[in-house]
Specification:
There is one protein chain. The protein has 174 residues and is mostly helical. It has one domain. The longest helix has 38 residues. It starts with a helix and ends with a helix. The structure holds zinc ion. Zinc ion binds next to helix 5.
């Protein structure tokens, strides 16, 4: 999902390696709420998956970073930083898709309400996320995720490519 958001927001006219680097950063950002650090991640799901906490942290990083990049006249800095924040926060939306049944509590510390947008074919892994059990269940789960997020990524690439092509044609004509 991070890579898909990156495709939508990254400056199109940069080199291939720079694009890959931006994608890697966006993938990292999209996984931040699950980062295994004290008082965060799966040990403190309430804090790490709070829309308020993540929104505040994202803003605390994004606003100074946007000003810094603008002062250095980096092209498309605002768009890039906004995209990064979106990739970060997309994690919360995606987690509500999974079939925990209970939904995701995102309102800490102001409320205990849960948001559940379950997509029935998304299942959660058995065992540790980095060392999942290797069985037919896990294989199927990965295939479904690859098909879904892979399609989304490919779709984003095609749409962005078409938009850029149209734009460059128009500027060439004008
Ligand atoms: Zn999560």
């Amino acid at each position: 999902m991070g890579a898909t958001v990156a495709v939508a927001f990254l400056p199109w006219k940069t080199g291939f390696l720079k694009k890959i680097a931006v994608m890697a950063v966006f993938v990292f950002l999209a996984n931040l709420p699950d980062a295994p650090v004290p008082w965060w991640g799966h040990t403190r799901y309430d804090i790490s998956h709070s829309i308020f906490v993540n929104g505040l942290l994202a803003a605390a990083v994004a606003v100074p970073l946007a000003f810094y990049l603008r002062s250095r006249r980096v092209a498309g800095a605002g768009t890039l930083v906004a995209g990064g924040a979106l990739a970060w926060l997309s994690h919360l939306l995606l987690d509500t898709f999974y079939n925990h049944g209970k939904g995701l509590a995102v309102f800490w510390p102001f409320g205990s309400g849960r948001v559940a947008l379950p997509v029935p074919w998304f299942k959660t892994l058995n065992g540790h996320p980095l060392l999942p059990q290797i069985d037919a269940y896990t294989a199927r789960l990965y295939l479904i995720e690859m098909a879904f997020y892979g399609t989304l990524f490919a779709l984003a690439l095609v749409i962005r490519w078409l938009i850029e092509r149209r734009f460059s044609r128009r500027t060439a004509a004008g």
